[in-house]
Amino acid sequence: MTASLVIVGAGPRGTGLLERLAANIPSRYGDRPLDIHLVDPHPPGGGRIWTQEQSPLLWMNSMAEDVTMFTDETVEQEGPVLPGPTLAEWSGVDGRTFPSRRAQGRYLSWVYARSVAALPPSVAVHEHRDTAVRVSGPPGGRQQVWLAGRPTPLPADLVVLAQGHLESEPAPDQRELNDFAARHGLVHLPPAFTADSDLDVLRPGEPVLVRGFGLAFVDLMVLLTEGRGGTYTTGADGRLTYRPSGREPVLHVGSRRGVPYRSKIGYDLAGEPPPVPRFFGPQQVDELLSRGGDLDFRRDVRPLIDKELGFAHYHRLFTAHRERTRMNWPDFEEKYTAADPGSAALRALVGAAVPDPADRLDLDALDRPLAGVRYRDGEALQEGLRAHIEADLARRHDPAHSPDLAVFLALLSVYGQLVRIGDRGPWWHGFFSYLASGPPGPRLRQLLALSRAGVVRFLGADTTVTADERRGIFRATSASVPGEPVEARALVEARLPEPTVAHTRDALLRALYADGAAAATPAGLLAVNPDDGRILDRSGRPHPRRFALGPHTDARAGGAFARPRTNAPAFRQNDATARALLTFLRDRTAPPARHFAKGATR
Q1: From CA 235, how far away is CA 16, in angstroms rounded?
Q2: Order of strands across the sheet with 486-488?
Q3: Which InterPro entries does the UniProt entry name for this protein (predicted)?
Q4: Tens digits of per-residue pLDDT, 408-433?
């Protein structure tokens, strides 16, 4: 019987796994026959997120030279490296540009086709443009994967769940807001992928409250301005001016921080990169994991992360900008190593060695730049936020502040180590995204132009939205301008749905969780074995035949594709899982051992 592998999800993560299967089959599986079934209602490669049907105005959040689907010699893996082009090399575009998501979708489709072509003739790939709704079967036997449009299940020796970003049922507070909007004829758009939302319900000229100031907001901003016919012109001084079409609503945007994500850094690192990991590497993770369940992120993990980021920052400052320090690096490094994270001794060391406070790393101030800041009125807030964004743009494009880039590289290193720890709680992922995964600089320049044009209005930090039942209106307030509420008949939640398995709309995952065949972390992520992605049940036992990869798991990496030469966690995971799959299938299909009587010959 031919071995069968079913991969649910043929987007970037499923494609990356397929690439690693093709790379490892010659040495790990040989020429044995194998059926690979790919189940996804969307085209393989790009999947739903990178579809060719979305607006061409939507950009990637990475430069073309920073996007690859292929491993290199930096990836810590057992499988072979099969080099491949970056998005920039494949498409022939300037590597410093931010391509459209359509362009990335075409690249992913090509990677998928190349991976299929790299498989030996003994492997057959079957595409099913359908939705997997259930998995059944005993741990010791073949599984059955049931599809929505097929009366009989797909037989599977192994199943991999790589659905990617999940849709979720509304949380209780979102259901209450939906019900309130329905009662009063208002508009409430819950968390969703902005490109999938029905934005036609937002009328021209009307005020719209927006909660969320990250990448989902940037997409919303683009689609409701340029997407409705507005244009930008550039003055002689390089400043953008927005010319409205008259079809835009007025976006009143706020969030917990009250500021947009930090701009992408606009220069390359010259000279020596930060030597990380140093204070948060494999040894420290081993020590943390040895504690078992007695592990608290804020108490045990966060201090190590802070010290790692600080080390990268000061290493760069002392080696590239020595004129701004008062101590030689070896002395500083020795004392920094000996000091406890967050201690008075560490603060005193930095204060003595780094005279300008602007050169000192203050992660709390970075995380909450408006904490304690109060503006006299709404107009002062608009001016203050524009100044904040302009300063961020200037700093993130000035190599004189290259310690920022060192911290970015350290953040990538930390993310790679945290994969082994699993569920990191909500703070880390949000902080990483805010500091390391912000929008391209041109998008923030557009935001400034929209603010000057009055199309975007800032609400401030600690934004809260209440539903006024008596008046039938949404009301937003913030800590930045106390006593100045903003009212609107439309509310948009500009953020992605939480990837919780308990409340996902994915019927397959919801059923596994309800049956106890899949466990969830405190944050609601699917619990998996970090070594190979095997799904854990509620007792913590790994299922021998079911695997999961992607953002819905507690081993989620920074993305299904990555920057070249960064030892990307997703690539390491894909290789380890591919080899585990092939080893299982090889042993399952190996011919039985032959026993010979004494004196017999082969």
Answers
A1: 44
A2: 464-468, 473-477, 486-488
A3: FAD/NAD-bd_sf, HpyO/CreE_NAD-binding, L-asp_N-monooxygenase_NS-form
A4: 999 999 988 988 887 666 788 899 99
CA angle 441, 443, 448 (to 5 degrees): 100
What one-character-per-residue DSSP string does 363-399 give? HHHHH-TTTT---SSHHHHHHHHHHHHHHHHHHHT-G
The pLDDT score that the predictor gives to residue 591 is 57
DSSP annotation of 341 reads T
Query: Residue 424: its pLDDT value, please?
Result: 67
What are the φ and ψ backbone dihedral angles of 531, each rounded to 5 degrees?
-75, -40
Is the bond preceding residue 277 a cis peptide, omega within 30 degrees?
yes
H or E stretch at 412: helix 403-418
Sign of the CA dihedral with 215 first, then 216, 220, and 226 last: positive
In tens, the pLDDT along 449-501 reads: 999 999 999 999 999 999 999 999 999 999 999 988 999 999 999 998 887 88
* Closest C-alpha to 9, from 131, 143, 152: 131
Helical ranges in 422-526 per DSSP H: 425-436, 441-453, 507-514
Contact 37, 4 (CB under 8 A): yes
Residue 83 burial (CB < 10 Å; 0-12/13-18/19+)? Answer: exposed
* CB within 8 Å of 585: residues ≥ 6 apart: 3, 5, 29, 32, 34, 157, 158
DSSP 60: P
Of the candidates 164, 125, 190, the one whose C-alpha atom is nearest the C-alpha of residue 12 is 164
State the fold for domain 3-168+499-589: FAD/NAD(P)-binding domain (3.50.50)
The pLDDT, as a whole number, for residue 600 is 34
Q: 539: which 2 tokens?
A: 């007792």
Are 36 and 124 in contact by the 8 Å Cβ rule? The answer is: yes
The ranges assigned to domains in the chain are 3-168+499-589, 282-436
Radius of gyration, CA atoms only, the chain: 26
User: For each successive 10 residues of the chain (602 residues), what is the average pLDDT?
Assistant: 96 97 97 97 95 95 96 96 97 96 97 98 98 96 96 98 90 94 97 92 98 96 98 95 98 98 95 94 94 85 96 98 97 97 94 97 96 96 98 97 97 90 78 94 98 98 97 97 95 90 92 93 89 94 96 81 91 97 89 40 30
Cβ–Cβ < 8 Å for 134, 508: yes
Confidence at residue 598, expressed as pLDDT on a 0 to 100 scale: 34
Q: Which residues pair with 542 in a beta bridge?
A: 536
The two three-digit tokens of residue 372, written as one number: 């304690």
Q: Tell me how far the alpha carbon of residue 188 is from its chain's centroid.
A: 25
